[in-house]
Structures are given as structure tokens and as C-alpha cells.
Amino acid sequence: MPRGNCRGQGWWHGKFRGCGYRLTLGREVILDVLSKAEGHLSAEDIYMKIHPRYPNVGLTTIYRTLDVLSDLGMVFKLDFGDGRARYEFAEGPKGAHHHHHLVCTGCNKVIDYTDFIDDEVELLNQTEKGLSKKYNFKITNHLIQFYGLCEKCSEKK
Amino acid sequence: MPRGNCRGQGWWHGKFRGCGYRLTLGREVILDVLSKAEGHLSAEDIYMKIHPRYPNVGLTTIYRTLDVLSDLGMVFKLDFGDGRARYEFAEGPKGAHHHHHLVCTGCNKVIDYTDFIDDEVELLNQTEKGLSKKYNFKITNHLIQFYGLCEKCSEKK
DNA sequence: TTTAAAAATGGAAATCATTTTCATTAAGGA
DNA sequence: TCCTTAATGAAAATGATTTCCATTTTTAAA
Ligand SMILES: [Mn+2]
Ligand SMILES: [Mn+2]
Ligand SMILES: [Zn+2]
Ligand SMILES: [Zn+2]
Predict the structure, then answer these.
(1) Domain enclosing residue B64, as ranges
(2) Do A141 and B146 touch (CB under 8 A)?
(3) CA of B106 to the centre of ligand 4 (A)
(4) pLDDT tens-place string over residues A65-118
(5) CATH code for the domain of A15
């Protein structure tokens, strides 16, 4: 968590201000949690992590902030089909860590993978180009996910 | 819509009975609507189509039936991110019509595409094989979607 | 520093697709 | 036809997310 006495010094201060957003305590704390989180957090997960130390940041603000962060491209909003959105920090310009997800339909575990990304990106580019032309569709984004059973869950079965 | 006098004669009668399910009027009608539908219908879409002629088939039954049909693999449950599930008839063994979707984030229009499916399938197989081995993850399913703006929506902008 | 406009906030209430409950009905084997 | 059990519909419950609105905070101007 950021020290309360050096607010607004993070590298993302500029990103906020540049888009007319104000960098508030709530936003900074949420961003901080996300940037340090391992997995894929739901709004409530974030609320739980923050609440003990910042009991006056409400769940509503978390939802609103996550929307803003998604708009700014600082966070990805993910849907693994369990009825609640998950959020993931979009690494800065340095660690642009393009990856996709393996989702276990047994226990909802999610594995990040980067394997085959090169071939994938190649196919994706080709596909995007072709589809853009054929359907006059401007593709801005893609979603690739694999579903199945993780090691533990296939053993159980 | 099926004629009321020849119930249970459809090619899917066996599929139901084989899995211990009963073939009811509601299920038959829902399947019929889906098999003839062009696009991607929500539960309520289906309800609207059915209700005039079969006013005693409730929305609850539609949800339940769609679950059954998904389990049987006769229908695909889709999520285009607009907060309601969509359903699509999974063509029988004949017209196995593997395709993915272009989703317009402007107007929610969805385009089916089959282009590049061959290269895609090849990459997918390779990826699935590699990931299965590396993570001991049994992949049963994949999701690929492209998001962007359709022709009309990019003009508007 | 003072001030005023705009943005952000939190808590409560609303939304709304989907699920659950439960009493009733219908399917299909015997 | 009879009986067991699956299937059904209506109403109520659920639960993640959004909306409302009165209050607070931020920021730029004076
Ligand atoms: Mn991830
Ligand atoms: Mn389709
Ligand atoms: Zn699992
Ligand atoms: Zn569009």
C-alpha cells in the first residue's frame, strides 16, 4: 500500500491527469493492490484487501474505479464465466506480458500461459487483417481462452 | 413449429431418451425455434417467439431446457458481454459448422465467420497439445472472439 | 488564501438476468 | 390404465453490478 505522505508520485499520476481524471486515494490504493496481486481479482476481492486499512473506500467506488482503469487501459476486465468480473493489472510499457488463460471448469482455477503466443499472434494478425477487409470490421481486441480440467480436477474424476 | 400431432418423431428424440431425459412439448418447441433461428437468441428472445403459440411454456422452463440442451451438446451457450447469455443451435453431425464470432462493441451485432478456420484449427491443436502436456490440463473447449466496430459503427464515429 | 465549479464518493436502493422453491402436472414404463 | 418420477410454472429469492443523491474532495481561478 502506498504511504499516505507521497500521494500522486506514482508513474501513473500522469496517465490519470492526462485524461482529465483525478488521482484520488481510493484509485491509488486500488491500483496498488492490482499491481501487486498475483491472480485475477474480483471487485469484492479488492474490497476485502483494502477494507481493513482503508475502511472508508466503498465497494461502489471500487466498481467505478475499475471502469475508469479499464477505459484507461491500465487494467483488463476478464470474464471466466463464473458470474463475476475479474480484473488484472495491465503491465506497463516495460513488462508488456501478453498472455491468455486456461480456465478449469472444475474448480475455476485460472492459469496464465504465454506459450505459442508467437504463432498465435501471427495467425491473429493474419486473421484480423482478413476479417477486417472482408467484413469491413475494425478489430480492436481479441479473446482467447481454453476450458478444461486442471490436474487436480482430472484426477478427482 | 412442430405439429402437435407428431411429437417425438424428430431426429433428436433418441438423443434425449438416450440420456434419460424426457422429450416434452416445451423442449421440442425450444429446440425447434433454435434450429430455425438465424442469429444468437437469448432466453427471453426464445420466450417471445414461443409465447404467442405456446403461452403455457414459462421462462423458467426455457432456462432449464437451455441448460439441458447445453449439457447434451445440442446447443452452445455464448457470452458476448452484454449481460445476457445467448444460445446457438449446434448443427447436427452433418453441418458441423465450426465458427467463431466478431462482436461489435458499438451495436452488439455479431458476425459468424469461418475464415481462417483451417489455420486456426491447426494452431489450436498444436497449442492444446502443448498446453495439455505442460500444465497437465485437459482442454475440452476453446473460446475465440474478436471485438471491434462493425461497418456502420465505424462510420458513425 | 479564499472561493466556486466540477468531479468523486459512499451508502442505500434499484436493476435485472438467472436460480430456487414448491405445489402441481405430465411422461413413459409396467 | 396406473404409478413413479421427471418436468413444469408462478412467485420469490439471489447476487453482482448500477443508479441515486446528498455530501465531500479536488482543482483551478480569483
Ligand atoms: Mn491473467
Ligand atoms: Mn454463431
Ligand atoms: Zn480444477
Ligand atoms: Zn456495430
Answers:
(1) 1-94
(2) yes
(3) 4
(4) 999 999 999 999 999 999 999 999 997 555 557 889 999 988 889 999 888 778
(5) 1.10.10.10
